Amino acid sequence: MGKNKSGSKKGASSSSPAKKCTCDHPYQCSCGNRPERPSKGHKWDPATQQWGGKGHKQKGASGQTATVAQAESVTAVGNVAVKQWQKLPSKLLADLCKKNSKEMGMPIYRPIGNRGAGGATGVGAGAGGGNGKYRFRLIVPSTVKTNNKGEHDVVLVPSLPVDNEEQAKEEAALLGLLFLFPKLPHERTLPEPYRSTYLVALKNNNNNNNNNNNK
After folding, report:
1. Quick count: other Cβ atoms within 10 Å of Cβ 171?
2. Which letter does DSSP use for residue 18 in this model?
3. CA distances in angstroms from 94 to 7, 88, 137, 179, listed in the order given
4. Neighbours of 62 (CB within 10 A)
5. What is the pTM of this model?
6. DSSP structure class, residue 118
7. Which tens digit of pLDDT belongs to each residue from 150-179?
8. How far apart are CA 134 and CA 146, in angstroms?
9. E strand intervals along 69-202
10. What are the pLDDT digits (tens) for 92-106?
11. What are the pLDDT digits (tens) for 21-53?
């Protein structure tokens, strides 16, 4: 009598483990098992199965180069920590506008309101109190030629003022990202607190669109 070869394997689990990327290329994947690359600066590590930051190369006495990780930076006014692979909303918007220069120009930020405490431009600033509220109007000019100049320009204004000029500019840029590039996963690149702000705004925008479609 022959042995039965149809028996189940010992210790087999009901759920299959996550598939590993088997590609050797540091930037490109052909097997489809590699997660999306966060940015152009990231390099794939096949050992850890993760994307790593690009850092910068430093040359030693022997002539060999070693990769040195870049420390995160902190903004001067808002004290926002930005890791080496992250971008502030204004930088992210500027890069996308430059990439789509056939349709749009570079973003323009114009302050709204009265002159606040300390000579800064703000909205609702108290005299001498240092509690100025700031807001910026975002203008993304269209590069499409029409008879009426500025006809297709995008003009956006945040609904509420904020505590400092840096944050006001970045929140105006968040509106631009949401309005012009809503399908891109900006939350993967934005630092906190702008990542959370963007996700809340994106959720509210999707809910409003769903409500309008159901009417």
Report:
1. 24
2. P
3. 61, 10, 15, 14
4. 7
5. 0.59
6. G
7. 678 999 999 889 989 999 999 999 999 999
8. 34
9. 73-74, 81-82, 108-111, 114-115, 121-122, 136-140, 154-156
10. 999 999 999 999 999
11. 888 777 778 787 888 887 777 887 777 778 776
